[in-house]
Amino acid sequence: MTTTVAAPATSSGPVARAKVRRGWTQHGLLFVAPFLLIYVVFLVWPTLLGFRLSLSSVNIAGGNDHLVGFANYAEAFGDPRMWRSLWNTLVFTVLSTIPLVLLGLAFALLVHHLRFMQWLWRLSFFGPFLLPSAVVSILWLQMIYPPDYGLLNGTLGTDVLWLGDPSTAMWSVVLTTVWWTVGFNFLLYLAALQAIPHHLYEAASIDGATAWDKLRSITLPLLGRTTALIVVLQLVASLKVFDQIYLMTGGGPEDATRPIIEYAYDVGFTGYRIGYASAVSYILFVLIVIVSLAQLRLFRKREEVAS
């Protein structure tokens, strides 16, 4: 009589593989648990709490806190000052995003092709970005824009009230912002340029390509992903503008530069209407999400067409 002994289960069986997957899953959850906790506590929960506030009549000066539904949103959509501040935000976004992207690319191309003192040029273009917004605002307020002794009027031979005239105030803030923040885009473009393989340019030179041909056929297409990233980051940053405008103009003159975040700040902490201010903030939040998703989808379609 013969007996058959079952072979021991090997580590390559389906049961063993399932155990390994469960083990990896458990260990993975342990590793990401601290981040998930921080993410929920400092992002998800405040977002939900803020949305709940936008549906209430909470007032930091006191009074009853009760839910009013979407009444705050209805009031915001009928508020002309909210629409004016939203328009100012969109104008600032358009006026600042275009030069910040183009100048960042131009400066990166310039520094990338320089063969002497590159560290000085990098520091010159990126240095202002390291300054706090208060320092930048005071610098331009006290040295560049004063009508009597300012550097800008002294150079141009004019006496323009750059920050006191509604027709020039927004342009002045945009000019300051471009000088201050273009270094970040410059750095991203410079890193992307240095990652392009040099043999592509060598092969193009052998084929007789000019500098313009190399830029149009090699450099710009390979910078497509970087450009998409910079545009999205710049749009989001410009839509959230607050610091330099609040410090330089306070939203004036005649509300010509007041962005929507400053309007929400004034309504919430000057008018004490936290619920209404939260509703205004969530209108901006939805706008930022829509713009970001639309921009990413546009660039993705372009990549699909190009490929």
How would you describe this structure to a colleague?
The protein is mainly alpha-helical. It has a single domain, classed as MetI-like (MetI-like fold, Orthogonal Bundle), CATH 1.10.3720. It has helices at 14-54, 71-77, 80-113, 118-126, 133-144, 151-156, 169-194, 198-206, 211-222, 224-239, 243-248, 260-269, 274-306. Helix 12 (260-269) runs antiparallel to helix 13. It is a multi-pass membrane protein. This is Sugar ABC transporter permease. The chain crosses the membrane at residues 29-48, 90-111, 123-145, 169-191, 222-242, 274-294. It is found in: Cell membrane. Keywords: Cell membrane, Membrane, Transmembrane, Transmembrane helix, Transport.
What is shown here, in short?
The chain is an all-alpha fold. The protein is about 70% helix and about 0% strand.
SSE arrangement:
Blueprint: H1 14-54, H2 71-77, H3 80-113, H4 118-126, H5 133-144, H6 151-156, H7 169-194, H8 198-206, H9 211-222, H10 224-239, H11 243-248, H12 260-269, H13 274-306
Helix pairs in contact: 1-13, 2-13, 3-7, 3-10, 3-12, 10-13, 12-13
